[in-house]
Amino acid sequence: MSQSMSTKGEFSRGWKVLLGSFIGMGVSIVSLTYYSGGIWVKPWQEAFGWSRTEIGTGQSLSTLVIVLMAPFAGRLIDRYGLRSVATISLFLYGLVLWATSQMSGSLWMFYGLMVLTTFVGVASSPIAFTRAINGWFSKHRGLALGLSLTSTGVAAFLIPRYLTPYVAAHGWRAGFFVLFCLVMVAFPIVWFLIREQPVEDGGVQDAKKVLSGATFKEATKTRTFWTMSFLFFLIAFAVLGLIPSFIPLLQDAGFTPAKAGAMAGIMGLSVMIGRIITGLLVDRIFAPYVTAVIFSLVALGCLALGLGGIAYALPAAIALGMAIGAEADLIGFFTARYFGLKNYGAIYGFQYSMFSLGAATSPIVAGYIWDSTGNYDMALIGASILLGVSVLIALTLPRFKDEPTL
Prior knowledge:
The protein is mainly α. It is built from 19 helices and no strands. It has a single domain, classed as MFS general substrate transporter like domains (Growth Hormone, Chain: A, Up-down Bundle), CATH 1.20.1250. The model is unreliable at 1-7 and 201-209 (pLDDT under 50).
């Protein structure tokens, strides 16, 4: 009974923040920009003559900006509050999406726009919105994180399924204009709904005074901090070059744009399911154990597609969706449980930057493998091996210092 009342209490008081976070993450750089990445590969090759390595380099440069800017964005959020910082970031990010729709065939212009997109959009990434969820939810933090992050799964399902054939019919510029419109509709809604943390006893709390946890310097002195950093770097390096490669991989195998988009849409469904399942499990089972099981399954899915070919596209799509359906939940959950919320933005920002470093280098490697071999088989097999190593690393993480009251 007490657990049921607690569930009702947390979700009844925090539903607006949950909804605002859901919308914000659904249109952020980790959703719209990331899950549409594979749609532009063939149109840009045809329009501008760019190689897949060149296109992958642009995507990687964008992600490298996260590596550099995520800790800084986290500190801005800690200092000025996530509501103002995140909504301004969303607005500027939307403007850059419109500018991208107007670009010419200059490779350097493309690189500049990819960098600018992430520079202005990084503060409206999960750095901000997982901070909001962690501030409003404790007992059911994992489930709340999973629910809020399912919006990235919605994006992963809808964008490839509908935007891929739309771009094939109307062109890539029209596709980017659609993304711009989505962000412009979302950012005022986020401003209205999002809040830093609950108001207790009718008074406004000062987050700096009431939140507990390690300082950034204290966190960096622990083995746990660096184990997490390497773990999430390795997971990102293994998997995230395969996501934008998935649609062109299917098209190379003879899939039409509509069929490739539909298969990638299954990945999006898997993202949603993966986030909710992960959230439910980490509230009940020691989170590193959950991590080990999930990424063991992902490794098997990548290995099946790499060795068995296109016949295993469906299990691979489900496996890859599970991977990206778990990572952001786990980074936020681990950060809050191991280091608290007082300096969550800075600590999460560093962890996310390490994750992004893996994400930045992965597409370059995947693109290079395709340019060298004409397929992604070695990228898939290599990913399965690296994920196996990640499973072993996850199992070395220590128990949490405190457990939620049941």
